[in-house]
């Protein structure tokens, strides 16, 4: 499943802007991007956004976490993603 399909299924469940922004940043940070210079820049951009978002909303989701599609986020505050 590609990144856009996963985001579409997430956005169907989450209607508010802050929920969608959180999911966009988390999905972009945890997505398995292909190799290449452009993708390295995109990966770096998502890591920076993830760092800023984790400071602003006190939410930490590591890039190694596997999250299925259709994730429901009632609020993007104080979320901690654990490795299982």
> Tell me, what's the shape?
globular
Largest beta-sheet details: none
- Summarize model confidence as the mean pLDDT: 83
Q: What would you report as the Rg, rounded to the nearest angstrom? A: 12 Å
Total number of strands = 0
Q: Which regions are unreliable across 5 or more consecutive residues at pLDDT < 50?
A: none
Helix content: 40-55%
Distance between the termini: 21 Å
Total DSSP helices: 3
What structural class do you assign from the helix and strand content?
mainly alpha
- β-sheet strand percentage: under 5%
**What is the string of helix and strand elements?**
HHH
Task: Describe the protein.
This protein is mainly α. It has a domain at 3-57. Helix content is 55%, strand content 0%. The chain is built from 3 helices and no strands. It has helices at residues 3-13, 17-30, 37-57. α1 (3-13) runs antiparallel to α2 (17-30) and α2 (17-30) packs across α3 (37-57). The chain is globular and about 35 Å long. The mean pLDDT is 83.
